[in-house]
Amino acid sequence: MDKRIPVTLLTGFLGSGKTTLLNKLLHNPAMKDTAVIINELGEAGLDQIFANSQISQTIESEHIADNTVLLSSGCLCCSLKNELADTMRDLFFKRSLEAVPQFNRLVIETTGMADPGPILANLMNEPVIESVYRLDAVVVTVDAAYGLQQIASQKEALKQAAVADVLLITKADTATPEQISALQEKLSAINPNATQQFVSHGEIDPMDIVDVGLFDFANKQANPQRWLRAPASGFSMGKKGTIPQAPAHDDVTTFTVYLPKPMVWSDFKSVILKLCQKHGEQLLRLKGILHVEDAPAPLAIHAVHFTPYPPTLLEGWDEDEPISRIVIIGKGIDEQAVRDMLTQF
Ligand SMILES: Nc1nc2c(ncn2[C@@H]2O[C@H](COP(=O)(O)OP(=O)(O)OP(=O)(O)O)[C@@H](O)[C@H]2O)c(=O)[nH]1
Fold it and tell me: Per its UniProt record, what SMART domains does this chain match (predicted)?
């Protein structure tokens, strides 16, 4: 079982309801051992989060409460890249020294204009971070009334929706049924692998958005099927080793490559690295389950842009049909070239 601290990346376009959601979450007893990194330009919304919460309301420095850090002088995806890693390291060391209350989960709330790609890459790239934290899920809020328009006009909104594990449709009370169904259709086209859920005024069962990644802590086991959301079998093969792609929307495509033969990870990892190097610019996210000959259990892999993440050994988990599969989410990505690279290995 992976003992690293799970990280939820909470993102979503400007005004889509991130702070409202975080506020409700942090008041829920199930989330009491949560550390938070908030990246807001300015401090709007913070009063709301800290009002009546068990967290101190004193805003003295960037450490606005024991387990809560505000990064307000820039954006995590561009100017504050190093600060995120430094802050995460700092929180972890303080936790080890018992200088902050023990936390067993971290939520990072980004600004509304954040490109999640560089943030995810950052989480995966830093040796200390990678060894003590693991990405649980990317949770993205989408405004029911304005989401469609924002996705069409703002590339950040599109990228946020594309890399989500969980899409939360907020403010349904402000949208017409037609707007909501058009948005849902669009989200399914952009990101068919994400779950879609409605949230009203931030009210949500925390269990709907935490531990929704690779590990299911309630059942104390890995749950890669749910994480990958690509069927293990029963797919109808299109071109060799692939299923037909979903239609392209705004240049964002999602497709799954199936590799029925077991592989050798020590060889295949160079293919993933090459894929990241060659297609990194367009590669929003890669997730996969690999059945390999040189490890005692299947491997979960993921990558963002140019950065492959070290694989996670899925100990105690196996499948009847050992078919490896890799889900690719790309923007303007050369799908055929990616398929060829993976299948011609
Ligand atoms: N009607 C309605 N309003 C909502 C709902 N959820 C959030 N809001 C309101 O929407 C506004 C924006 O919500 P925030 O939570 O601040 O959004 P945000 O994503 O944190 O905004 P930024 O930090 O600016 O990106 C606030 O006034 C909320 O009260 C909802 O379900 N229904």
Answer: CobW_C
What's the 124 CA to ligand 1 centre distance in angstroms?
Answer: 30
Burial class (CB in 10 A: 0-12, 13-18, 19+), 192: middle
Q: What is the CA radius of gyration of the chain?
A: 20
Indicate if ligand 1 lies below 6 Å from the C-beta of 173: yes
φ, ψ at 138 (rounded to 5°): -100, 115
Mutual orientation of helices 335-343 and 265-279 as an angle, nearest 10°? 160
Mean pLDDT of the chain: 80
Asked whether residue 23 is assigned to any structural domain, the reply reads yes
Q: Residues 243, 337: one domain?
A: yes
- Do residues 146 and 173 lie in contact, with contact meaning Cβ atoms separated by under 8 Å? no
Give the other-Cβ count within 10 Å of 278's Cβ: 15
The number of the ligand 1 atom at minimal distance from the alpha carbon of 45 is: 16
Residue pLDDT, tens place only, 8-67:
999 999 889 998 899 888 888 888 889 988 887 654 445 445 543 444 333 333 444 566
Which domain does 134 fall in, by range? 5-213
If residue 125 lies in a helix (H) or strand (E), which one and from where to where? helix 116-125
What SS3 class is residue 252? strand
Number of Cβ atoms within 10 Å of the Cβ of 147 = 29
